[in-house]
Amino acid sequence: MPEGACAYIYGDLRDPEGILRKAANTLDLGKPIAIVLFGILHFLADTDRPDAIVARLMGALAPGSYLAVSHLAKDVEGDALTETFSQLNPQMSESVILRTHDEVAAFSHGLELVGPGVVQLPQWRPDPAPEGTQPARPLPMWCAVGRKP
After folding, report:
1. Cα–Cα distance, 117 to 99 (Å, whole number)
2. What's the pLDDT tens digit per position in 42-81?
3. pTM of the entire structure?
C-alpha cells in the first residue's frame, strides 16, 4: 500500500465482510489501524447484532489496533431523550436505539479500554476550561477508545 493512501468506502455497517474486503484494498489489515464508529451504532437495532459487527471488524485487525465509539445514552437524561426519539423515530429512515453505559461498554469486549474508559462527552480527556468559563457540560452520549491486545 502506498504511504498516505486514502479511500472512501460506501457500504452498510451491517455487512462487515464487505467493509473489510473494500478496506483491504487500501489498508494493510495486518498492521494496527483504527476503526472510528462515531454516531453510527445507535442506528443499528439489537436484531442487527451491533456487538457481533464490532467484534467481527475488530477480529480482522492486527493487535495494537484501536476502536473509538460514541453512542447516544439511554441512561443520561433518559426520559427526555427517550421521549424525543419516540417522536422522531417514526419520521426517520433509520430508528435511533439508545443504549446504557454497560451496553456501550460491551462494544469494547476483549479490548483494553484507554483511560478514562467509557464516559460522557466531553469528559473523555477534556481540555481545561479557559479561566473564567464553565467546563463543557456533559452530553447524553457515551464514548470510549479501546486497544486490541
Report:
1. 16
2. 999 999 999 999 999 999 999 999 999 999 998 887 676 6
3. 0.86
Write the CB contacts of 27 (distance below 8 Å, at least 6 apart in sequence). 1, 33
Q: Identify the domain containing residue 65 by its residue range.
A: 16-121+138-147
Residue 111 within a domain = yes
The three grid cell numbers given for residue 42, joined into one nine-digit string: 445507535
As a residue count, the chain comes to 149
Q: The domain that contains 117 carries what CATH number?
A: 3.40.50.150
Distance between CA atoms of 147 and 111, rounded to whole angstroms? 5
126 belongs to a structural domain: no
Residue with cell 469528559: 123
| Residue listed under C-alpha cell 485487525 | 61
Lowest mean pLDDT among 2-11, 30-39, 65-74, 129-138: 129-138
- 116-147, pLDDT tens digit by residue? 999 998 788 877 778 888 777 767 899 999 99
Nearest to 124 by CA among 111, 134, 112, 114: 114
Q: Give the single-character DSSP code of 48.
A: G
CA separation for the pair 124, 62 (Å, rounded): 25
Indicate whether 79 belongs to any domain: yes
